[in-house]
Amino acid sequence: MNQPPNGFWAQAAADPDRTVLVAPGGEEWSAGRLHADANRMVHGLRAAGMREGDAFAVVLPNGTELLTAHLAAAQAGFYLVPVNHHLVGPEIAWIVADSGARVLITHERFATAATAAADEAGLPESHRYAVGTAPGCRPYADLLDGHPAAPPEGRTLGWVMNYTSGTTGRPRGIRRPLPGKPPEETYLGGFLGIFGIRPFDDNVHIVCSPLYHTAVLQFASAALHIGHPLVLMDGWAPEEMLRLIDTHRCTHTHMVPTQFHRLLALPDEVKARYDVSSMRHAIHGAAPCPDHVKRAMIDWWGSCVEEYYAASEGGGAFATAEDWLKKPGTVGKAWPISELAVFDDEGNQLPAGQLGTVYMKMSTGGFSYHKDEAKTRKYRIGDFFTVGDLGVLDADGYLFLRDRKIDMIIAGGVNIYPAEIESALLTHPAVADAAAFGIPHADRGEEVKAVVEPAEGYEPGDALAAEILAHCGERLAGYKRPRSVDFVTAMPRDPNGKLYKRRLREPYWEGHRRPL
Length: 516
Hints:
Elements: H1 8-14, E1 19-22, E2 28-30, H2 31-47, E3 55-59, H3 64-76, E4 79-82, H4 89-99, E5 104-107, H5 111-121, E6 128-131, E7 138-139, H6 141-144, E8 159-160, E9 174-175, E10 205-207, H7 214-225, E11 230-232, H8 238-248, E12 252-255, H9 257-264, H10 268-271, E13 281-284, H11 291-301, E14 305-311, E15 314-319, H12 321-326, E16 333-334, E17 338-343, E18 356-362, E19 368-369, H13 373-378, E20 380-381, E21 384-385, E22 389-393, E23 399-404, E24 409-411, E25 414-416, H14 418-425, E26 431-441, E27 445-454, H15 462-473, E28 484-487, H16 501-505
Parallel strand pairs: 1-11, 3-4, 3-5, 4-8, 5-6, 6-7, 10-11, 10-12, 12-13, 13-14, 27-28
Antiparallel strand pairs: 1-2, 9-19, 14-15, 15-16, 17-18, 18-22, 20-21, 22-23, 24-25, 26-27
Helix pairs in contact: 1-2, 2-3, 4-5, 9-11
């Protein structure tokens, strides 16, 4: 099929027997089966009172139900609100209530938090559905059973309304206006063209991170819409990913640097057991990738290791492996549909080579923070928006990030960027994960603190802390070096690699006011 019909629904109608999904556990789903369930869900949600422009929330693991919900929303003019299933009841309740979700779909694994959230948000039990058994929820099957598998009438494009991670405060929904036209009139897989990924072409996309994350769902859905089968992982394990790539000859994926770090930590004999030569695009983002980790992955996987910079609000930049090797540390040049700029704190655009706040502009349309026009205005300069990252554009248009402005350490009036310190920490074999941030200092304002998650087989304590500090002393200038090391059992990251640094930093600042 050289010229596939535009969008999953048209492709499913044209070739209903084609396998489009390998669910966690290995069950294969045909296009016709997934299409029918998505249609039934539209009818079920409309029967529950939902109309164009309404929202519904899902607290689901990676699986067929979440993709069914996405396809249903996208052809019925609904807003799908994917919720991080690691959140607790009050956090979920905030999102359900703030989004105005009319229906909640969850899974028995997350039912305790989800039903508590629904209670707090005032969502009636008649509008709650759960996969599996969950008190206070109707069975998921009730949403689909008895409804026709035929496409619904009045099909119109809907969107995903993601909520920002909330690392700096209450999460806010990112709401884009609905275009009011049938989904086939928008090329829904065009996003992947930025990375050189084409329709069909024997591509297979492996989903190795949670689909509630903006980029993960966007990559997966775009792949589905241009004819690429999906292989879903429900919970990531490094060797299992290698096995699935080998078994299904996967060609592209979205990853985060934490996954690279843990893949590289596998024994050489395990790495050699699997063939990953089918991979064409291992695209990573969401967090800074230390240089030595990036080089090691390129040495192992080759030129498929590519990088992008974006946010839930939009993007962005893209760097091939060749770009990165030519300009180590870059996150790339602007996407064809995006523009990058660096501004100072007074709103003046800075020339190449000067450090400032990174702003982006998209040619595909704008957004607003749901119910928060003040935040929408605060982080914009004209049509440009920012998520608070600091960076430099070089004379060739390549972007180099320094850190998030809120994470920058100011010690004795000197700006210190934690990402550089964290990269040095991660070169020590005893460090499985690391964070650096500023803590109070009576004279200098802040000093550098390192928090380390020890690698397996290493005992945390004073001796290991001294060894790590000495290691940093050989790699960092004196003012950048951590003054002390604390240890944690597990770093507070979400499964997409985003570090909740605020959770680590806040206890040290009790009774103090940060100088930022």
